[in-house]
Amino acid sequence: MNEGSRPYLLVFESRQRNWLERIAYALGAVAVIVIGFFFLTVALVVGALLALVVIARLWWVSRKLQRERDRDVFEGEYKVVNRSESERRR
Fold first, then answer.
1. Which domain holds residue 65?
2. Is 41 among the domain residues?
3. Residue 2: its pLDDT value, please?
4. Residue 75: inside a domain, yes or no?
5. CB within 8 Å of 17: residues ≥ 6 apart
6. Residue 23 placed within a domain
7. Which residue of 18, 23, 44, 82 has the fewest CB atoms within a 10 Å radius of its CB?
8. How many helices (H) does the chain have, and how many strands (E)?
9. Of 7-11, 47-51, 86-90, which range is least confident?
10. 8 occurs within a structural domain
11. What is the pLDDT of residues 37-71, one digit of tens each?
């Protein structure tokens, strides 16, 4: 580097904010937090409702399948009767 040239530095100088700006920023931050809270609440409620719908649908389908499976089962009593050779020939 040349002795006469200096590297460029990016300097951010913040000025002091007055009380009106601080109040405006605080109100904006509170508004963002409140709106975020309501969005989170709505998202949780919608998620819970969606989970309930999925669970209810699974229950309904399993109930229907159970009914179909039970419809194919015959229940009753039976008695084994041994017949003699002469009765079987008739």
1. 19-70
2. yes
3. 58
4. no
5. 25
6. yes
7. 82
8. 2, 0
9. 86-90
10. no
11. 999 999 999 999 999 999 999 999 999 888 888 77
